[in-house]
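Our preliminary data section would be incomplete without showing what the modeling component actually yields. Below, a chain of 108 amino acids is followed by its predicted structure, encoded as tokens that our downstream tools consume directly.
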Amino acid sequence: MVAKQTDNGPRRLARMFRALGNEHRLKIFMNLMAESQLDLARGRVHDCFLVKLLEGLDLGVGAPTVSHHVKELADAGLIHTQREGKQLICSINPEALRELRAAMASAG
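Predicted structure:
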């Protein structure tokens, strides 16, 4: 049982890195990060409509593919999503961001 607990961290990180390993998902995540930068610096969560998030991003894929990429980011724990009518609201998961930063800091 102890081995399972210690294995959870690397497994979770691997899932996050795998999700970010796709160019389209990385672009979506980076755009959400840029959009959220001020609020994240103040320790707040920034909600962003997916439509606004995709403005200016030339992903070259259709809506179903974008939905799939957003779902992958959410399933990896990198973002939170919430439906509001027909709109999808996305926000960075601050805990996942801390984990990624800690992993990168310890690797250096």
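Residues 2-107 form a domain with the Arc Repressor Mutant, subunit A fold (CATH 1.10.10.10). Residues 1-7 have pLDDT under 50 and may be disordered. Preliminary results of this kind motivate Aim 1 of the renewal.
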